[in-house]
Amino acid sequence: MNIENILVESVVAAIEALYGQSVATDKIQLQKTRKEFDGDFTLVVFPFLALSRKKPEDTAAEIGEYLTKNQQLVASYNVIKGFLNLAIDGGYWTELLQTIDATEKWGVTPVTEQSPLVMVEYSSPNTNKPLHLGHIRNNLLGYALSNIIEANGNRVVKTNIVNDRGIHICKSMLAWQKWGNGETPASSGKKGDHLIGDYYVAFDKHYKAEINEAIANGATKEEAEASSPLMAEAREMLVKWEQGDAEVRNLWSTMNGWVYEGFDETYRTLGVGFDKIYYESDTYLVGKETVLEGLEKGIFYRREDGSVWADLTKDGLDEKLLLRSDGTSVYMTQDIGTAQLRFRDYPIDKMVYVVGNEQNYHFQVLSLLLDKLGFSWGKGLVHFSYGMVELPEGKMKSREGTVVDADDLMQEMFDTARETSAELGGKLNDLSPEEAEQTIRTIGLGALKYFMLKVDARKNMLFNPRESIDFNGNTGPFIQYTYARTRSIERKADEAGVVLENVAAPSAISDKERSLIRLLYDFPAVVRQAGTDYSPSGIANYAYELAKEYNQFYHDFSILREENAKLKAFRVLLTRNVGKVIKTAMNLLGINVPERM
Questions:
Q1: Which pTM value belongs to this model?
Q2: Are the beta carbons of 298 and 179 closer than 8 angstroms?
């Protein structure tokens, strides 16, 4: 039941009946009535003044009068200048609640084999260090975005490109060779990604010491960096890797294996996953071949040192390096190859890259290069660009002192959830120890995810663990607690024998009940808008608004103590559907909701 469509058609009929004029439906401006005014929908009357040749107030009154007499949906109206506020009949809202209740996945568009296929890339880690705070925002945005796109009737492939080759990987490998003494995750007791990250830091420490020593002996910084023996060894290792040197490849395979085990553990804890993982080591050669083909066709050019470049100055950009003078690849080369492989593997209708806003220029260039190379899907790629995330200074210490480790942050969230629950007088005392621990982890992760996702993704944000886990306000735990409250009411109603089949409409419903049903009715439109705008924050803020509205209703009205049996059943039915929609909304964000809290 689309109320807006019914109203639009009725307004078209009103204009024709009152003024003898036809009007196109796209000229009719209908919007939600602002909270400070009475009504459900507001019609903007100004576009019809040329037809009515009357004042805005008179035109609005005439249309309002016509609608109340000829459309059962409209119970009453009021006029504010050139705006006609329409109130929908209460019986219609209760009928609508029955429809919502009968629709298992209200707000979600079913996916078929013919649905468009959208691929979403997120995470994109390097195998020289563990996942960090920035990766958490990336993964949460990518996973939520995938769910929202799917909820809009698309087939979705969630994908990851692992940057498993390059000079940064060789730095960790070389450091382990020199100073590792055969250390492994098993012998050290460390996760593999953390262990390799330590050697990346070790390389940097020795490299800086080497540079400082050269400068102390009279070299400039540029000379010291150019003549660094350690960096020269790392570059030599990269060349050997690209040449397929067996020893280097074996070391690379072993160390990457340690990292992948660590990554998988972090992904499992965070609750995200992928349908297909690509590796730069598999894609860079495809990109390299394509670049060389582009060179032959005159799309790119080679400089005197042997490096290959794209001249994009005529497109308003600059020149872009594609192959180094030693023939090794850069990120852009890899992305060209990855894009090709993906479109070979899947009949993708749209490609969405979830990458931070520091890479805006990179994706401008990638789109242009793919288009120049003759790939029709080049210009259609979407860069879902997001801002940086930081923690309050001193809130947490990182492994290297600069980057906040993802595993440490999640553990901090679990600890904070445990402390907060204890401070609130033991919210979880009625649960078994196992259930309580699982609920604590659900609350901790829910707090982290919701706080990250409620902010407009394009903005930089400050993440405060303690603030995120508050059980009041615009937080994940507040919404989770509201869901648990709806489930508790459902269980008690069931025990009391309240029957929710064929619930009869009460003689009248309150403004608060009407407002809640209206919010439930809005959910499909919210999901559609979030899909159009690529905006998980739209879903997050809707979930908060619904939870807040329900809690006000819960405090102001009796539900299980209501003496009128018909009204009691209606309110329990309303509660059930509020819980259902909250759960759907939070699940779209990748957030679980506990049955008890």
A1: 0.91
A2: no
Instruction: Tell me how far CA of residue 99 lies from CA of 106, 131, 295, 512, 572, in angstroms.
Output: 9, 44, 61, 19, 15
Q: What is the CB neighbour count within 10 angstroms for residue 121?
A: 26
Place of tokens 């660094």: 228
SS (HEC) of 306-326? CCEEEECHHHCCCEEEEECCC
Question: Residue 434, Cα to own-chain centre: how many angstroms?
Answer: 30
Task: Locate all alpha helices (DSSP H) within 389-475, ordered by sequence.
Answer: 406-423, 433-453, 465-468
How far apart, in whole angstroms, are the C-alpha atoms of residue 199 and residue 234? 13
The most distant pair of C-alpha atoms in the chain lies apart, rounded to whole Å, by 94
As a whole number of angstroms, the distance between CA 98 and CA 577 comes to 10
Q: What is residue 402's predicted lDDT score, i.e. its pLDDT? A: 61
Which of 241, 255, 264 is closest to 127 using CA atoms? 255
Pairing of strands 83-88, 389-390: unpaired
Query: Which phi-psi region, left, alpha or beta, contains residue 327 (left: φ > 0; alpha: ψ -120 to 50)?
Result: left
**What number of residues does the chain have?**
597
* Beta strand 83-88 pairing with 74-80: antiparallel
- Tell me the domain boundaries of the chain: 3-88, 163-270, 443-588
**CA angle 290–291–293, rounded 5-degree value:** 65
Contact call for residues 418 and 105 (beta carbons, < 8 A): no
pLDDT tens digit sequence for 394-453: 444 444 456 789 999 999 999 999 988 877 666 677 788 899 899 999 999 999 999 999
Task: Compute the average pLDDT of residues 301-326.
Answer: 94
pLDDT-derived band at 1 (thresholds 50, 70, 90) equals: low
Q: The domain at 3-88 falls in which architecture?
A: 2-Layer Sandwich (3.30)
Whole-number Å distance between alpha carbons of 485 and 209: 59
Interatomic CA distance for residues 59 and 47, integer angstroms: 11
pLDDT digit string, tens, across residues 79-105: 998 899 999 988 888 899 999 999 999
Which residues 6+ apart lie within 8 Å of 274 measured at CB?
123, 158, 159, 160
Which tens digit of pLDDT belongs to each residue from 137-186? 999 999 999 999 999 999 999 999 999 988 999 999 999 999 999 999 99
Class of 443-588 in CATH: mainly alpha
Between the CA atoms of 221, 227, 233 and 234, what dihedral angle is there, to the nearest 10 degrees?
Answer: 30
The answer to whether 308 touches 302, Cβ cutoff 8 Å, is yes
CB proximity list for 528: less than 8 A, separation 6 or greater: 152
Which two structure tokens, joined as six digits, stand for 124?
């994109």
Domains 3-88 and 443-588 alike in fold: no
